[in-house]
Write a structure and sequence with these properties.
This protein is mostly beta strands. About 0% of the residues lie in helices and about 35% in strands. It has two domains: about 90 residues, Thrombin, subunit H (Beta Barrel), CATH 2.40.10; about 160 residues, Methylamine Dehydrogenase, Chain H (7 Propeller).
């Protein structure tokens, strides 16, 4: 799901209906919807909230995971939608882009994604790929595939968790470092955006692991200094520093944590917490009602 910048609407994927619903936050009323492909998945507001970047992942629960059977995974779309009219403005042709780069067998199912600060570049993960893809959002040109360490080489695709290899990505406010959840390889890591090699020599030295952990999501901290990573296997969430690339703090949470969102809760609803005042630029009444 994705919340509009003004906090008035939330976009929710209906994964079995090939549709995305737009709800009014104040009362949950559906105000619109727009079409997607098989198993609508990820959405993000862009262009100051005027557009929505959306992707569907296809049928990740089927056993037909070999590349020759990829067409059976259903329609995968990566599209831009007008956030007022909900008209699909553009669908990116990832199949052609991947094929032109010699990635004919690569899945086009876009998983988690993140945008450069100027929103000119989108970094996204795709099914079965250990790393991320970089694409120019304006032209639709795929600029590179950035491979990261694969610690489970030889593992059959059918054993990948819902087709994920990596599942979680966020870029820091400077656009210089990316935080990644290497889900199937059980690590998180922070890498430099401008390193233009497949697997740099010291990448393995920077891998962050928790015993029995399985990272399943990445979210930027509100101040942009950290990324939060959920460890679904250990019921923990870690705060990782973009600067050091190391864990700053880890807390225990509920069973099998996945997605993480920044937000504020009324102090009156939570007992035993110290007083906290959100930063001035995050006290928008539309987002944090008084």
């Amino acid at each position: 799901m994705a919340v509009s910048p003004d906090g008035r609407r939330v976009v929710v994927s209906a994964s079995t209906a090939n549709t995305v619903h737009v709800l009014r936050v104040s009362d949950g009323t559906e105000v619109a919807s727009f079409p997607s492909g098989g198993s609508p998945h990820e959405s993000a507001y862009i262009d100051g909230g005027r557009k929505i970047l959306h992707a569907s992942i296809g049928f990740v629960y089927t056993p037909t995971d070999r590349d020759l059977l990829d067409p059976t995974k259903g329609e995968r779309v990566f599209q831009v939608v007008d956030a007022e009219t909900f008209e699909v403005l553009r669908r990116y042709d990832l199949r052609t882009e991947f094929d032109e780069l010699g990635r004919e067998g690569r899945s086009t199912a876009v998983r988690p994604m993140t945008l450069s600060p100027d929103e000119r570049t989108v970094y996204f993960q795709v099914s079965f790929f250990h790393g991320f893809v970089e694409m120019d959002l304006r032209t639709g040109e795929v600029q590179r595939f950035r491979r990261l360490p694969n610690l489970i080489k030889g593992t059959p695709r059918e054993q990948y968790l819902l087709d994920s290899a990596h599942h979680g990505i966020a870029v820091n406010p400077r656009g210089s470092r990316i935080c990644v959840a290497g889900t199937m390889s059980d690590y998180a890591t922070v890498v430099d955006v401008d390193v233009d090699v497949d697997v740099d020599d010291d990448a393995r030295d920077r891998l962050i692991k928790r015993e029995d952990g399985k990272p399943y999501w990445v979210t930027q901290s509100a101040d942009g200094r950290f990324c939060y990573v959920s460890w679904s296997g250990t019921d923990e969430v870690s705060r990782i520093s973009y600067g050091s690339g190391r864990i700053d703090e880890t807390v225990t949470v509920g069973d099998h944590p996945q997605r993480i969102r920044n937000g504020f809760v009324r102090r009156a609803l939570v007992s035993g917490l110290p007083d906290y005042t959100p930063p001035a630029d995050m006290q928008d009444p539309a987002v944090v009602p008084e």
